[in-house]
Each structure stands twice: as C-alpha cells, then as structure tokens.
Amino acid sequence: INEHKEENKLIEKDLIYHIISDICKGLKEIHNKKLIHRDLKPDNLFLTKDLKVKIGDFGIAKELNNGNEYAKTQTGTMLYMAPEIINGEKYNNKVDIWALGCIIHELCTLNFCFESKSINGLVDKIVKSNHEKIDINIYGNDLQNLINSLLNIDYKKRPTVEEILKIINKYFTIAIMKQLRSTISRR
Q1: Residue 39 catalytic?
Q2: pTM of the full structure
C-alpha cells in the first residue's frame, strides 16, 4: 500500500482479489480453530516474494471454546476495530470480517477506511460505518458491494469467510471465461 501510495498508482483489481482470497484462506484456518485474530490490519499481513499473503501477529488473538462464545475485551487497532468492540459489546470472529472490509477499502483507495481529525470523530464514523466509496469505474460495483457487506454495522449480517471466498471464486471464474472467449474469438 505504501509503495503504491508513494508512486501515486492504484493497486490492480486482480491483485486485490488475489490478496482478499489469500487473507480469507488464512482467516478460514484461524476461525476453524475457534480463534479471533482481533488485530487484522495491513501491518500484520506479510506478502511473500511469490505474492502469497500470510497473516501474522497473534499477540491479542482470542480462543473461543465453542461457536456460541463471545469475547468482550476492547482490544485491537482502532482504525480496523469493529463497532461492537468500540461500543463495548460482545463480539465474535465477525470483527475480523469488519477489519477485512477496512483492508480492502484501503487497498482500493490507498487511504484508511475511516479517517477523522479527532478520536470522537473517528469513533462516530466507525460506529455508523461512514466510509468513502471506492472508485467503481476502476474496481466495479461488486467490490464496493463486498466492502459494504463486510462493513455492515450488524455483525450478524456480515458474510462468513466461506461466503466471501465464493464471491472471489466467482470473480476469477468470470475473468477466466472472459479471457477464454477473447482467445477463441481471435482465432
């Protein structure tokens, strides 16, 4: 993100979808182990030379004993913190889904999803999910809709990692089909 920001060059749509896919695959493993990362942010994502994304820094991760358990500790990085954490409410692994929405938004805009000159202003924007829209002329409505669903104030309405992966797979399937049609039509 910082390199693209310095070069004033947006990140390519296909690369963003690839990054989302890798993050989701990692989150799926984490959530299947009944863990909540609780501090998912770009600084805790590592890009390998072959463009694989690895999730790191599990210092404040929380293990839930069963699928119905919730956490309540206010922890994490505020810029990626879900409204339920800020409001001191119980929460589950859907806080990681919220953080993913913030990350995707940042990948598309090269700016934080929620920005304000004051802490109170930032809190107000987060709890209302008041974020700028991405450029749909570059990234399309599907990516904006995905961000909107991840940044739903009601955590019960946020998609699961599996549902996000279905959206990503659909994107890549359509892209491959377009490429095949183009190749066939040139023959």
Answers
A1: yes
A2: 0.91
